[in-house]
Design the sequence.
């Protein structure tokens, strides 16, 4: 049995062993930038199936201040069985760089993958981006602005855009200024002010800084790619009202949008590491990729 061992900078929380024997080929820690050792990605391609592969690009969560590309990827690895490739992206975190470095890195990674698609057997016209929590905020920015280049790193010269044909949004917030105001209103001395760490400012200066940058909802229009929006019913970390707002804005713009509210759950899904627990997400993926959803034999 073959194992792939992930080494992370954080702690053992995110270290995982994934059994991929006979299912995937892997290329790990591929640099897509030269500013940081965190500008790397992993590419998994199916052993079976026909090239070029439709590709899922994963953006991990962790408040933009922690986490790793190996975080919570078990359900995404199941896509290999359907003939899909998977790319997992690391990006600069808030301890090293401030916003918008994170979204610059994500768009650079997608553009790198498109330029080098032939090397990995990827289909550059069939990319879906999948994010969770703050990683999902970045995914939503890609969905809204990937084609226009609003969040392209001006120092990145890859001859491709960061457009995708679908977005999977798990527990994304809509507006970082609003989440900051909510934290301040709680007046909890133990509350971690994530936005202060992400932007390096406080108070009104922080709000002004956040408002300098276009937000996901600002960029939604009729040309926005299809979205799959998922939220937990009793989420006390990122209220479900955020996903309702995404759904309403996307639906109003005439975008293909699916909204799944997971009943009787809090933030994140308990044990959502198995593919059967996110069956509806895969139905969306199959439909957007134009596949029948049958495993490759």
Sequence:
């Amino acid at each position: 049995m073959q194992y792939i061992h992930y080494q992370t900078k954080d702690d053992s929380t995110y270290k995982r062993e994934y059994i991929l024997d006979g299912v995937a080929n892997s290329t790990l820690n591929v640099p897509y930038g030269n500013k940081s050792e965190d500008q790397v990605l992993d590419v998994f391609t199916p052993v079976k199936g026909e090239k070029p592969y439709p590709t899922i690009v994963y953006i991990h969560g962790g408040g933009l201040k922690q986490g790793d590309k190996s975080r919570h990827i078990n359900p995404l690895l199941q896509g290999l069985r359907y003939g899909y490739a998977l790319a997992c992206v690391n990006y600069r975190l808030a301890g090293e760089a401030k916003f918008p470095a994170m979204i610059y890195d994500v768009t650079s990674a997608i553009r790198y993958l498109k330029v080098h698609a032939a090397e990995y057997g990827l289909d550059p016209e069939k990319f879906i981006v999948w994010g969770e929590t703050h990683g999902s905020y970045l995914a939503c920015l890609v969905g809204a602005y990937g084609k226009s280049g609003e969040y392209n790193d001006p120092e990145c010269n890859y001859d491709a855009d960061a457009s995708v044909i679908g977005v999977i949004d798990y527990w994304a917030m809509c507006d970082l200024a609003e989440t900051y105001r909510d934290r301040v209103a709680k007046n909890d001395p133990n509350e971690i002010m994530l936005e202060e760490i992400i932007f390096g400012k406080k108070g009104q200066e922080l709000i002004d800084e956040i408002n300098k940058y276009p937000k996901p909802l600002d960029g939604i229009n009729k040309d926005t790619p299809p979205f799959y929006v998922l939220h937990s019913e009793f989420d006390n970390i990122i209220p479900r009202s955020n996903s309702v707002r995404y759904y309403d804005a996307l639906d109003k713009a005439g975008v293909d949008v699916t909204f799944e509210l997971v009943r009787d759950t809090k933030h994140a899904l308990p044990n959502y590491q198995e593919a059967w627990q996110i069956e509806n997400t895969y139905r969306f993926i199959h439909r957007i990729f134009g596949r029948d959803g049958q495993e490759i034999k």
